[in-house]
Write a structure and sequence with these properties.
Layout: H1 10-18, H2 39-48, H3 50-76, H4 79-94, E1 98-100, H5 103-109, H6 114-126, E2 131-133, E3 136-138, H7 140-146
Antiparallel strand pairs: 1-3, 2-3
Helix pairs in contact: 2-3, 5-6
Length: about 150
């Protein structure tokens, strides 16, 4: 999932609270500053600061809602719809209209094969929904369509 400025990685939070090692791999798409909170502080902050507790709970609720939406997408949307949703969700999350990365990276994110994603992207390009170049997908026409 994607994090915006001021958001917290809820998976890491849960692992900290449970004192387990996180298996999250963070990848940035642009220069990023990260604030690391020592594990020992989390319990204290949750009990001492109501606003921190509310922030953590709100973050967890939002990610849980996103998880349910993802499950629904996987269960009920066709792959072409999921691919389109991948790009429009990125736009809604970050405002980005260009994806810099390989078709394999997209396939991995959507739990599909590179061949399927490449074929669907070519079809989307034929329809004028995206513009393709090496390791780059401009999906601005999809964003115009969404709003």
């Amino acid at each position: 999932y994607y994090l915006r400025a001021g958001e917290v990685c809820t998976v890491s939070l849960v692992c900290c609270m449970d004192r387990t090692r996180s298996r999250v791999k963070a990848v940035t798409e642009e220069p990023t500053s990260v604030i690391l909170v020592p594990v020992e502080k989390l319990d204290n902050w949750i009990s001492d600061f109501q606003t921190w507790k509310e922030y953590v709970m709100h973050s967890m609720q939002r990610r849980f809602d996103e998880l349910l939406e993802t499950i629904e997408s996987v269960a009920f949307l066709k792959m072409d719809e999921r691919l389109e949703k991948f790009f429009t969700d990125r736009f809604r999350s970050s405002g980005a209209t260009v994806y810099e990365g390989s078709h394999q990276n997209i396939a991995h994110a959507l739990n599909s094969s590179r061949e399927v994603i490449s074929r669907l992207l070519k079809e989307m390009e034929r329809k004028g929904l995206v513009s393709l170049s090496r390791n780059r997908v401009d999906y601005s026409p999809l964003c115009d369509k969404s709003y």
